[in-house]
């Protein structure tokens, strides 16, 4: 069997299986920008694949043993790649090193000042906020984010600056590979039920991540979230670790004094602890929602921990205007706004619905929700239904399986029944093709429609807009 998790000398001519994925494409992009001869494969073509080709990458559509070049120095995989994948099997037969995506990203961060962003929710947004604001200040960071900022391929960049900002994924414990100078932990909740059986396992995993912070480095962690406070208690007192808290708690090192919504933006006022200069700062967050405002404060605190002046970073945070699939406006038709949300955990669903309702005016909030993973639906289906009750009406699709096989008895009915018990107006729809017509019949001028979930529900946004624009509507 080929060795796994080998070092950066295997990344001169890497081959990525599933290169078009959000996490894989970012690592491939940075390697290509650094001069590596990148190749890979994916099940379908996409704008992200096209952006990689523009950087010189060779990308095959479909998986085949013949895709693997004779001179490949490694094969890069994520946890989503099954053991019987033809290219992975071929690599093992040929003795080509198999490198996990997290090991490749860790190798990219060697020699830099890494800031790693972790947490059950908000990682992509916070990583993006920090990357964009540091670029605005001219610090030219490198970054790898789990979603595109705007154009396809904008999820990653090789910069010439010292700082490397990366999203740190806890789902498969791959964030244990990193050794950040600054680590952000936004929140800690039970998720990824196929890999974690209890909160104790979650805490142990995050403690391992904290233990990887470089000597003299900093942990930036929420002072408000119960799971984060518990983790702080568990890791407190570690020698050589600086712990900086942020939030509305009176004892936070960066204390939030006010969050004032203004339509689809917010004005945030914070007070820094004396150890961070003691200033009071007010700045704009250009996306709606209290949770996004708190993500911005986490980014501000991390920047200050990395010696970026908070007074300069705060106004720069306004330059972040969103990331794809995080309350992204897809368009407006017939007076109806269609917005895309990646929310798939009950906490995220509730937060996005509350944020959208704050900017919805007199219109209704309609949701097209696609559950993600059988294991998550089995464990959290009731809570998902309760969260959907915050919408005026919801259409719930079948479960998007991603990497999982079906679980007997686990269907979207678990969510629909829970939503109905809470008085929600909820409709089951098993045929995605029927959704645009269904929504067109429900939506009225002034309403907001959210396509919500981590699967291919995002593709329905343009189709709903097209149906709303049709003469029949």
Word description of this protein:
This protein is α/β, with parallel strands linked by helices. It folds into 3 domains: 8-99, NAD(P)-binding Rossmann-like Domain (Rossmann fold, 3-Layer(aba) Sandwich), CATH 3.40.50; 111-319, UDP-N-acetylmuramoyl-L-alanine:D-glutamate ligase; 326-469, Mur ligase, C-terminal domain (Protein-Tyrosine Phosphatase, Chain A), CATH 3.90.190.20. Helix content is 32%, strand content 22%. It has helices spanning 22-33, 47-54, 86-94, 101-109, 123-136, 199-211, 226-235, 290-305, 310-316, 346-358, 374-388, 413-421, 435-442, 460-469, and strands at 14-17, 39-42, 58-61, 74-77, 98-100, 113-118, 142-144, 156-157, 163-167, 182-185, 218-222, 242-247, 254-262, 265-272, 280-285, 326-333, 336-341, 365-369, 393-396, 426-428, 448-452. The strands form 3 sheets. A 10-stranded mixed β-sheet has the order 8-7-9-6-10-11-12-13-14-15, with helices on both faces. Strands 16-17-21-18-19-20 form a 6-stranded mixed β-sheet, sandwiched between helices. Helix 5 (123-136) crosses helix 8, helix 6 crosses helix 7 and helix 13 packs across helix 14 (460-469). The radius of gyration is 22 Å and the shape is globular. The termini are far apart. The model is unreliable at 1-7 (pLDDT under 50).
